[in-house]
Amino acid sequence: MSTVAYEIVDVFTDRPFAGNPLAVVFDAAALATSQMQSLACEFNLSETVFLLPPTTDATYRARIFTPERELPFAGHPSVGAAVVAMRRGLFGEGQVVQECGAGLLPITVTAAGGATLTGGTPTLGPPRDPEPLLALAGLRAEDLAEGAPRSAGCGLEFVFLPVRPEAVPAATVLDPRAAAMLEVTGMSVFAWDKDSRTAHARVFCPAVSVPEDPATGSAALGLGVWLTAAGLLPGEGTTSYTVHQGAEMRRPSTLACTATAVGGAVTSATVTGHVVPIARGEMAVPPFIG
Questions:
Q1: 11-64 pLDDT per residue, tens
Q2: Is 47 tagged catalytic?
Q3: Which domain holds residue 233?
């Protein structure tokens, strides 16, 4: 029976058994999409990333799967895959380019086991009615904080719901059917501290059967877009901010971010995190399903 090599790492943490776990599968060029999906289901983590040769002028290609479907892009698989590939000698430290469904994304990898990912093109949706979004998260009108809820992203969009600090741990997992009716595929419920430029966030992804995610790089990137549009980050220049996530899941995570803005709109955003090795091995290749 043929096998593929894999590693499991924890991303956006400097210690094991925290952050967001990730499976990285190597030499995936011979795998069909259905086989990748079966392997992602077997790992049953929020995401599994498969490394392949690039088809364009990139260092490598990444395909990212949840247990149920493929994503064009995600943050912790991108950061984790780059560091793991560097450690395995696929390339050295420094800047590399990842090819994925969101395009060609620059990633800077360090020998210490960290990586800085530059997200895709920033996007921003119109303001949304907060009442049904609060109800979706099991919260009340008085829990709402400064800023209009709206979607934002840098390759993968989330709805951002600003709430008071005490409301973050009180939020409940989103009902998938109710979320679908509101056209919410993923939502970040967060509290913002202006003085420290720090967010305490919880991210729910009902559309991909991830009830709650302990560290979400793509949502951290989108948060910078939202914060700038809300006037909570400067509208000119590059500003750093930090996202703390995963505490409620006992997997504390730290995401160090920047947002670069021109004329009040974000033009690019980055997220940085550390990657901790956990396990490695081989897994049987599932049968091909044509």
A1: 999 999 999 999 999 999 999 999 999 999 999 999 999 999 999 999 999 999
A2: yes
A3: 123-271
